[in-house]
Design brief:
heterodimer, A: 423 residues, mainly alpha, 3 domains, 0% strand, B: 240 residues, alpha+beta, Alpha-Beta Plaits, four-stranded antiparallel β-sheet, two-stranded antiparallel sheet
């Protein structure tokens, strides 16, 4: 049962002592609860997108041997507020030759496209605004609204750079929607439903129950979805629409003040959306290890609330890990060229993701779920994942150790400076 | 990862040998190079940042971290200065202004003015090079912000004082570089932000401790009647 539906019914029953099924004003209670839910989702976006800008800059600083913003508030944690207030106070310029209605409307369209996806994101066992039966399709569709917004911004600005940026952005988003849709299709085939809660429910809390470790094709689909999600979000290494070396800032070049802020806001909100979709589709979503969804649904009182909070925390934790990876990729990989971008999509990702969806179909037809082959496959994929993680840690350590002694000799200080030590 | 794929060929012919292999090699390279790059950036999360957080979050003043040969604001140790005027002559910008006269009572040469306009100085170091007595030198002071333009002229002689007659070897040891400057300009940089120096306050400021080892001689009559600041004193005869 949907938590918002439940809350609205509870409101009617306790406050007005009426039966929600027969009471004529139930829809008002529903409208109020929907409004509150939208506000909560908006607050989550704001609270997430704001500090993540600061966290990203701190991480970028450490990756480049710098510190990052640490002046505004304790360790600079109020930097995002300062930036936001600065943008709000700036003048809202409209170029004289701009197509004014398009120019003014574009940021809202971009933001609506991003924000619409939050409706179906399952934050917890029952913490979801609306569990649509076409959830994943809805996410793909509503985030496509962003393309319209970016094209409007590019066209409406009446500037070469903005137009280049808008067209590039549109080309990129439209292209990369194909592999991301195919990768998600593999998951949809496995789960047998498009509903986000259904997909999470088809997985389990333990890693071997996640879709990513189910079989090799889903593992590949996860990587391909991640790549194409980064590309759809216009993040580095696919940030051609904002390539400052070629087109100074892209579609948002003529924007200033609050409208400019909306583009950035949407970009960081989108980072969360792609991490959340990857989490729910491949990494088990909010599933608590060892606790079945039925047990959560049957729990009463504070136990129920506790399970909800725990599942919410698990979902946000997984999403945050992916967001960190996206940030790290941004500060690691150089930007692709336009032709490389298109080749990556059409020559590599599209055929491979189609292949992975076909492979998933084949395995579903050939391998019985829960059978010995299925478990061998899960174990092998889990082993692969662990090996990759182990190799990663080894490589990080080796890179660190290669420079440690020289640093000590030159600086007389230890190179070791863990991330939790804030300078 | 892209250019290694050979150009497309006619569909009627078999693709050239190695095309498929190159395709999969590109995938492998893309993944492995991204993996390598990610591990390098991750290792930097555990490394000490290079940033020196000037001006507050530092272990010691930045002046002490700079190399010894750093060319900062000029400083004169008047105990070692013989008023040979070599620095004044060689300065391409004329930012050094020295005046001296003979005391009619004692008959000794006295220096009445040693001004350096740090607003004019271009830190070329010629004066420091030419100084034979290690009196004029660059310090590692770089925080030369002052509140009024006239404070940019440093007065190293506040009261007329006798010029040393000692040979270079007998002279007192050169004072620690920067110590004279730090006493002269408390408004320098951020170290004493509480003191705002006005021109009057500057003129009336106590003379920095630049006592010569010998007893301070009585200043000449025309100079003694002048204002305490050497900058305001009437110009006596120019030293040769």
């Amino acid at each position: 049962m949907n938590i918002m539906h439940y809350l609205a019914d509870l409101l009617v029953r306790s406050l007005f002592k009426a039966d929600p099924a027969t009471w004529p004003y139930t829809w008002i209670a529903y409208a109020v609860v929907i409004g509150v839910g939208a506000l909560l989702a908006f607050a989550f976006v704001a609270i997430f997108a704001g500090p993540v800008t600061w966290i990203e800059r701190r991480i970028a600083g450490r990756i480049q041997s710098r510190i990052g913003p640490n002046r505004n508030g304790p360790q600079g944690c109020l930097q995002w507020l300062a930036d936001g207030i600065k943008c709000w106070l700036k003048e809202d310029l409209v170029p004289a030759t701009a197509d004014k209605p398009l120019y003014l409307a574009a940021p809202y369209l971009v933001f609506t496209g991003m924000f619409g996806a939050f409706v179906v994101l399952p934050f917890g066992a029952h913490v979801i605004a609306a569990d649509l039966n076409v959830g994943l399709l809805y996410i793909l569709a509503v985030t496509s609204l962003v393309v319209v917004g970016l094209l409007m911004a590019g066209w409406g600005s009446n500037s070469k750079w903005a137009l280049f940026g808008g067209v590039r952005s549109a080309a990129q988003l439209v292209s990369y929607e194909v592999p991301s849709a195919f990768s998600l299709m593999a998951v949809v085939l496995m789960a047998g439903t498009l509903s986000t809660q259904g997909i999470v429910g088809a997985q389990g809390g333990w890693p071997w129950q996640w879709f990513v470790f189910r079989n090799p094709f889903l593992f590949a689909a996860f990587i391909m979805y991640f790549i194409s999600a980064i590309a759809e979000g216009n993040r580095t290494p696919f940030d051609l629409p904002e390539a400052e070396s070629e087109i100074i800032a892209g579609y948002n070049i003529e924007y200033s003040g609050m409208r400019f802020l909306f583009f950035l806001f949407a970009e960081w909100a989108n980072m969360w959306i792609m991490a959340a979709v990857a989490t729910l589709a491949f990494l088990g979503g909010w599933q608590i290890p060892g606790i079945s969804p039925e047990r959560i649904a049957e729990a009463k009182g504070w136990t129920f609330v506790g399970w909800q909070a725990l599942s919410f925390a698990i979902f946000v934790f997984k999403g945050t890990c992916l967001v960190f990876t996206i940030i790290q990729i941004r500060w690691t990989l150089p930007r692709l060229r336009v032709d490389q971008l298109m080749i990556t999509c059409w020559k590599y990702l599209v055929p491979l993701s189609m292949g992975s969806a076909t492979g998933v179909l084949l395995l579903m037809a050939l391998v019985r779920e829960g059978g010995i082959v299925d478990w061998v496959m899960r174990g092998a994929m889990l082993l692969v994942g662990l090996l990759v993680a182990g190799a990663y840690i080894r490589k990080v350590r080796a890179t660190f150790m290669a420079d440690r002694d020289n640093y000590k000799k030159m600086e007389g200080r230890d190179l070791w400076y863990p991330p939790y030590r804030l300078p | 990862m892209v250019p290694t794929v050979p150009p497309a060929v006619s569909p009627h012919r078999r693709p050239p040998r190695g095309t498929v292999r190159a395709y999969f090699r590109n995938i492998r390279l893309a993944l492995s190079t991204a993996f390598d790059g990610m591990s390098v950036t991750m290792s930097y999360m555990f490394r000490r940042p290079l940033t020196i957080q000037y001006p507050d979050k530092i272990d010691k003043p930045v002046q002490e971290m700079l190399p010894e040969s750093y060319r900062g604001v000029l400083e004169v140790d008047m105990d070692r200065c013989t008023v040979c005027l070599q620095c004044q002559k060689i300065c391409p910008l004329g930012c050094i202004n020295i005046e001296s006269c003979k005391n009619p009572e004692t008959g000794n040469r006295e220096v009445t003015k040693f001004d350096i306009d740090i607003g004019l100085c271009m830190y070329c170091g010629l004066c420091a090079e030419t100084c034979n007595f290690d009196a004029l030198d660059h310090t590692r002071e770089f925080e030369a912000t002052v509140t009024t333009p006239d404070q940019m002229i440093l007065h190293f002689v506040e009261k007329p004082r006798e010029v040393t007659k000692l040979k270079a070897a007998e002279m007192p040891v050169r004072k620690h570089k920067g110590s004279i400057l730090q006493k002269m300009i408390p408004a320098f940089g951020r170290r004493h932000p509480q003191e705002v120096w006005t021109p009057t306050a500057y003129a009336a400021a106590p003379v920095p401790a630049l006592k010569a080892p010998t007893a301070t001689p009585k200043p000449a009559a025309p100079v003694a009647s002048a204002a305490p600041s050497a900058a305001d004193s009437p110009t006596p005869e120019q030293a040769p």
